[in-house]
């Protein structure tokens, strides 16, 4: 039965207050129904685990082809990016990611990631106090990932700010989104220059993409979009997972004790970190036909729908006591990396890095404590920290 009057809410999910602590709003929306129309933003929001997972797996109904952003400027500018495609075009281009980022392909680099994590842990433990974002979480993405991609040394540092701007620019029309535009324009210009000058190291992940472009398999806009995918996705998920993990362990020392006593819990701890503090909170798609989500709620055809990864990962209908951080939970079915044909292709690399950091620190650190006030990095799409002062002993 189609409802003539949809469940409606005037909640603002993109205010400073909402981005700083979205979880009470997510719960309120989950309690309203499987999908709710957000009148402030003229879009539908799916927040329950079952419905979010189902929608992510149904690209024929929930299409990425009209863009995943919440404004036309973003979707027009990145129309050729992999994230804004549906099969079959998306399937072919995605292989450029999956072939080079598969577990088998990453196996040879695992030892090097472990070694760098151990050297970094030694250095930071000797210091005693450091910023878990700038000194710890950003190290592996900037150095290891960029080396794997074959990125030029010059300009690596500025990519961090550009990547954050890319996600912000996918938000609704608002001052925060507008403020991100210069960063995104700089990112597009920089990536276009890398492609035009072929300024990538042969043999790296990025070179594979460049060869595909030179062979005529993808247009220049597609090459730039794929490079953006490598850079943006590689940075954000890993940085957020490491820094959020440090924050969670500082607040829950008993969980750190569990990991220290059994380092084999690192994969489970990683899954729990990204479940409870999902690096990507939301992405949107557009319906190609009516979608019946149950309980009499039918989303119309041709409307934009926001998929709540962060909300689904805290859905008490699926995860018992979802606001409790428990490294033994091992929620392997979390949606932090999405699901279906657009599931994060680089999640294997993120796992390698975060596992390495957790194990290196667990072998050296008895206690993690906050050494100052954490500063959230408010972003329309992602969740993480700008600064996180910690002390280890």
Features:
13 strands, 393 residues, 17 helices
Task: Provide structural commentary.
The protein has 393 residues and is α+β, with helices and mostly antiparallel strands. The protein contains 17 helices and 13 strands. It has helices at 16-20, 23-32, 49-56, 72-77, 89-101, 103-106, 110-127, 132-137, 139-149, 159-168, 175-197, 205-214, 220-251, 253-261, 266-276, 309-312, 347-362; strands at 8-9, 35-38, 43-46, 62-63, 129-131, 282-287, 291-294, 297-299, 304-308, 368-370, 375-376, 385-387, 389-392. The strands form 4 sheets. A 6-stranded mixed sheet has the order 1-2-3-9-6-4, with helices on both faces. The radius of gyration is 20 Å and the shape is globular.
Could you list the spans in which at least 5 consecutive residues all have pLDDT below 50?
Answer: none
The rough form would be described as globular
Find the count of extended strands (DSSP E, 2+ residues). 13
Separation, N- and C-terminal Cα atoms:
60 Å
**Total number of helices:** 17
Mean pLDDT: 91
Structural class: alpha+beta
Helix-residue proportion: 40-55%
Give the strand content. 5-15%
């Amino acid at each position: 039965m189609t409802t003539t009057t949809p469940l409606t809410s005037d909640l603002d999910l993109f205010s400073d207050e909402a981005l700083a602590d979205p979880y009470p709003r997510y719960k309120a929306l989950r309690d309203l129904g499987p999908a709710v129309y957000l009148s402030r933003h003229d879009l539908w929001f799916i927040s329950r685990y079952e419905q979010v997972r189902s929608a992510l797996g149904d690209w024929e109904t929930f299409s990425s082809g009209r863009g995943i952003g919440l404004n036309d400027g973003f979707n027009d500018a990145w129309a050729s990016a992999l994230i804004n495609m549906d099969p079959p075009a998306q399937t072919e281009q995605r292989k450029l990611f999956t072939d080079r980022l598969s577990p088998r392909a990453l196996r040879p680099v695992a030892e090097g990631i472990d070694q760098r994590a151990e050297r970094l842990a030694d250095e930071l433990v000797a210091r005693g106090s450091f910023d878990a974002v700038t000194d710890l979480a950003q190290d592996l993405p900037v150095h290891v990932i960029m080396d794997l991609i074959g990125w030029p040394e010059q300009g690596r540092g500025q990519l961090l700010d550009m990547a954050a701007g890319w996600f912000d620019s996918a938000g609704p029309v608002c001052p925060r989104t507008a403020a991100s535009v210069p960063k995104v324009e700089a990112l597009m210009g920089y990536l276009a220059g890398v492609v035009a000058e072929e300024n990538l190291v042969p043999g790296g992940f990025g070179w594979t993409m460049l060869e595909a472009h030179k062979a005529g398999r993808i247009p220049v806009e597609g090459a730039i979009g794929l490079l953006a995918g490598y850079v943006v996705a590689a940075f954000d998920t890993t940085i957020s997972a490491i820094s959020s993990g440090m924050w969670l362990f500082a607040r829950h020392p008993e969980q750190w004790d569990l990991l220290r006593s059994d380092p084999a819990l690192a994969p489970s701890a990683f899954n729990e970190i990204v479940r409870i503090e999902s690096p990507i909170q939301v992405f949107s798609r557009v319906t190609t036909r009516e979608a019946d989500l149950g309980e009499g709620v039918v989303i119309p055809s041709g409307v934009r729908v926001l998929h709540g990864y962060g909300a689904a990962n805290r859905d008490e209908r699926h995860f018992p006591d979802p606001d409790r951080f428990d490294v033994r939970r091992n929620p392997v079915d979390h949606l932090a990396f999405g699901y279906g044909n657009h599931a994060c292709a680089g999640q294997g690399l993120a796992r390698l890095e975060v596992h390495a950091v957790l194990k290196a620190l667990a072998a050296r650190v008895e206690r993690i404590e906050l050494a100052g006030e954490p500063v959230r990095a408010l972003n329309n799409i992602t969740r993480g920290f700008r600064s996180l002062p910690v002390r280890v002993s």
